[in-house]
Specification:
By secondary structure, this protein is an alpha/beta fold. The chain has helices at residues 2-31, 63-82, 106-120, 130-137, 140-143, 155-158, 175-185, 198-213, 233-240, 253-265, 280-287, 310-321, 327-346, 352-357, 359-364; strands at residues 41-44, 47-56, 86-88, 91-101, 124-127, 146-149, 164-166, 189-194, 217-221, 246-250, 271-274, 296-299, 377-378, 384-385, 390-394, 397-401. The strands form 3 sheets. Strands 1, 2, 3, 4, 5, 6 and 7 form a 7-stranded mixed beta sheet that branches. Strands 9-8-10-11-12-15-16 form a 7-stranded mixed beta sheet, sandwiched between helices. A two-stranded antiparallel sheet has the order 13-14. Strand 10, helix 10 (253-265) and strand 11 form a beta-alpha-beta unit. It has 15 helices and 16 strands. The protein folds into 2 domains: 41-170 and 308-385, 3-Layer(aba) Sandwich (Rossmann fold); 172-302 and 390-401, Response regulator (Rossmann fold).
Length: 404
């Protein structure tokens, strides 16, 4: 009897173990999204899922910037999904945004892209920094995915990568209006204090010869590693010893604003050339208002744009994220809508060559609500082409600057 009871008890235990294992296995399958073999879509009933990748800084000093680029993509995806998704080749699809943190590091961006392709088969991967774009361009044509490149770095287009779409305008278009304004208002001596990233180095390499060609002089030339430095007193002090009329600053908005604020606290009265990555409206949150940024020239804040779609977009974005959108949110919002329209025109959610070939139709067919910027075409280099929207801060207010 004792032996029989022992055998019955062991049988009961084994039955319970196998039952629990089966439950756990079912739970795991329900929670995960199984990637489809077709490279971008997965089936869920009658509606397919297109996984869209994102690798960008979601932690560290550039996290504020990275989250806002992701917000633009996510908001567009949620609007499209809420409207019932989109139809390609007679089938309905919805979007699933898969985001990974790369801490603003190119090697992490490359590793993330590999993971996104292997685990989620993402036909499009957004990344908001030139270092990340360059890392992805090493293998994206071979691995068959499009890079949604949120960077104004001209080199990402100049390399001839056929599966890269550059979303913002090239920054070399800003050289003339920024230089003209700063020289006319303040003088010809400039100190360089941009971000130490590859993007900052490339921007500096373009601005320096242009500034000098216009008769200007670079009196101090350095950079700041925002990933390592948080107190800029020493480097700003050294720059101001050379008595510059203008400071060239830039990078993510928060640390860039801290550089401007510290310069003012140290007595700097001149102007600022602000790289297009940093946004004036986001900087004012750190400087305590626009007064500290008087004399700064940079990209026009989206909230001050006169495009017809902007007021409704700003209202919806603010309701969702409890803050005003910057241009990084607005441009990535446009980018997501344009890619979806390109998929529809291509008749495929995973043939990346066809999707890329239909990007012009993607821009042409965007709904009016998505047109928070006027982007009429994509150039032969794979970059969106639009008018440069430039602004300066004068007497504590944003003033539009006309660009020919």
């Amino acid at each position: 009897m004792k032996r029989m009871k022992s055998l019955l008890m062991m049988c009961f235990i084994f039955v319970m173990i196998f039952s629990l294992a089966a439950c756990n296995s079912t739970s795991d399958k329900t929670a995960s999204t199984k990637p489809a073999s077709n490279g971008g879509g997965s089936k869920s009933g009658d509606v397919g899922t297109v996984n869209i990748g994102y690798t960008g800084p979601l932690s560290g000093p550039a996290a504020f910037y990275g989250k806002r680029t992701l917000n633009g993509i996510s908001m567009a995806a949620e609007e499209i999904n809420s409207a019932g998704g989109f139809e390609v080749g007679g089938k309905k699809y919805k979007l699933n945004i898969v985001s990974l943190d790369d801490k603003y590091l190119p090697n992490e961006a490359g590793a993330n892209a590999k993971r996104l392709m292997q685990e989620n088969k993402t036909p499009i991967i957004f990344t908001p920094h030139s270092g990340g774009v360059f890392a992805l361009q090493v293998f994206n044509q071979q691995d068959k995915f499009i890079i949604g490149a949120y960077t104004s770095e001209p080199k990402v287009s100049d390399v001839g990568n056929k599966l890269t779409v550059r979303i913002p305008p090239r920054y070399d278009g800003y050289l003339k209006p920024f230089t003209d304004y700063a020289m006319d208002k303040f003088g010809k001596k400039i100190a360089f204090l941009p971000t130490a990233s590859q993007y900052g180095k490339d921007w500096s390499a373009k601005l320096k010869p242009y500034w000098e060609k216009q008769g200007g002089k670079v009196v101090y030339n350095s950079s700041i590693d925002f990933a390592k430095e948080t107190d800029f007193f020493t480097i700003v002090t050294n720059a101001l010893k050379e008595k510059p009329d203008v400071l060239f600053i830039g990078g993510a908005s928060e640390p860039t604003a801290k550089v401007a604020k510290q310069a003012r606290e140290l007595g700097f009265k001149g102007g600022f050339i602000v790289m297009d990555q940093a946004k004036l409206d986001e900087m004012k949150k750190i400087t305590g208002g626009y007064d500290a940024l008087n004399g700064a020239i940079g990209v026009m804040p989206l909230v001050d744009s006169d495009e017809a779609a902007v007021p409704e977009y700003v209202k919806n974005y603010k309701a969702k994220y409890n803050e005003d959108p910057g241009s990084e949110a607005g441009l990535n919002y446009i980018g997501m809508y344009a890619f979806v329209e390109a998929m529809k025109a291509a008749g495929s959610v995973d043939d990346v060559e066809k999707i890329r070939a239909n990007m012009q139709k993607g821009l042409d067919n965007m709904p009016d609500k998505a047109k928070v910027y006027n982007i009429p075409k994509i150039g032969e280099d794979g970059g969106f082409e639009s008018e440069l929207v430039v602004a300066a801060v004068e007497n504590g207010k944003i003033v539009p600057i006309k660009v020919k």
